[in-house]
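so my prof wants the structure for this chain in the tokens format not the other one, which i didnt know existed until like an hour ago. anyway here's the sequence
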Amino acid sequence: MSVVNKATVRRLYEEAFAQGKPEVVDEVLHSTFVCHDPNSETDISHLQVALSGSTIALGVTVIGLAWYGIRHGERWALLTAFLGPVIAVAVAVPLHFPYGIATIGHLGLIYLDALILVVGTVLAYGGLRKGER
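here's what i got, hopefully its the right format
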């Protein structure tokens, strides 16, 4: 199998996303990476599981801060619950722009989550008790 260059992979991705055929993306991934390095499928899977675990842990942390800190009027808890996801998005989303995959179709739920986070933070801030602890 010949080595597929980056431009070819990007073109194939763009065609697959434009046609709404995610199975083509899987095929490209498999033929481009897995066939060249049998360990890459394990590496990709490991990365996805680790990232998923971190995302879930961040969500649980934000829920805990909201449930115990924000409900008791702790402004530091609100700030922490807001900044945690903001930092995660600030690190992850910019990487999508050079590859042209920062679209609504790919990151739409992240954009929606960001909007919900901002609205929730504003509402929670308005509901905090007057005295900061």
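also thought this was worth mentioning. The chain has a mean pLDDT of 78.
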